[in-house]
Amino acid sequence: MIATRLVCAAAAMVAVVSIAGCGGGSTTTPTATSAANAYLDDRSASVTAMLRDFGSALRAGDAARARSFVDPGADTAFAQLIADAAGSVSALRPVHLEYGVDASTAGSGTGLAETLVPDDLQRRLDAEGASDSWVAPVVVDYAIGGVDSMPTRVKAPMVLVRHDDSWRILGYASSVLHSGSAPALPWDHPGLLRTDVRTGDVDSVVLSYPGSRALAQRITAAFPSAVRAVTDFWGEQWSQGAVVEATDTPAQFAALGGGGTDPASAAAATVYDRVVAGKSGQRRVALGQRVVFTPQAVTELPGATLGVVLRHELTHVATRTRTAEGAPLWVTEGTAEYVGRFGTFTTLDEAAPDLAASVRANGPPSAPPSDAAFTLSGPDAQLAYQQAWSMIDYIAGRYGRARTVSLYVAMAAGPETTAQQDASISTTLGVSGADLVSGWQSWLRTQASH
Fold it and tell me: Quick one: signal sequence residues (predicted)?
């Protein structure tokens, strides 16, 4: 197996430390360490060159050449996936696409713990004449032309096999080792179609697959007005464009949606890579932001409901660079719900039937919902979203949209204690947290009585 090969191959270069290095009783000498580091560096360089050429074949749309980088012992489904990917990459039209090894976790001096392939697989590879194998920390940097200002990075660990001096791809680690999620690469799913749509002064992109074409058509039609609705609330300090992916299988949604959202409990999810500083002093940029719709959205989001969800998710896109991890969900989700539902109802019963019934039966909530209440699989999620929406709807109606945006910016800057939230409320709205809740409760009683 690779860990044994790595240590003993290095020790074989220095016979003096061979017994000590592989015997388990002595400390590895600097000479053995240097040999091991040289081995790691050589392996990383060879694999990097292979991955660079593999990415080049995909960019060129050369299915035969791309498939030549697949190990002969690979599963036939993976070999077909790679052949199909070449065509899908051409449809995507990326301005940048590069496969490589994550330099932060591979090579000498990093302390990377080797992941071993299963014993039965290693025995098979040995029987096939493999001289080495590696569960490599592969990453893919790509940018979609017209929408991505900078490349996003996707982790795509691969199991690689060496025969003589050539490395080949056995498959993704997620499938070969049966662990982890499939990489979020849109071209890894057959039948990819890119549709461009003008949203304001920029281009947006809708990606679809054979089973999601109808949903994609509806998204494309709703896109311009959804962007306008978000801009009307948030202002122009966002890209005013996005990439939306309409998936056609649960497995596809799990891969492209990040694996953190159950497709049975949500219609869509917004994912991103990371937030970085913009170029030349421009605003911060959220890399790799994608709105991903579940396959059942085509039937579960009839009529205007699709627009509500699209506006909700695009609000997350617009506010991403001003939203820290741990920001209170009643603010972030409530704001997205407010923008999504704005103008679609006339009564509380229409907008939030569960909340209206709860207020009539038990009175209004004593406070905004906690973060825990938003767990999609939990019993209180639907009510929590309605409560959060109602709080933001009340604030926007009572204090105006501009101050509602200011409240979002203040409270979404990071995790806040109750005292810090009260301070943000006082600074932006001019009332105490207790007075805000009291006003919201009175408003709810009035709305529920209509």
Answer: 1-20
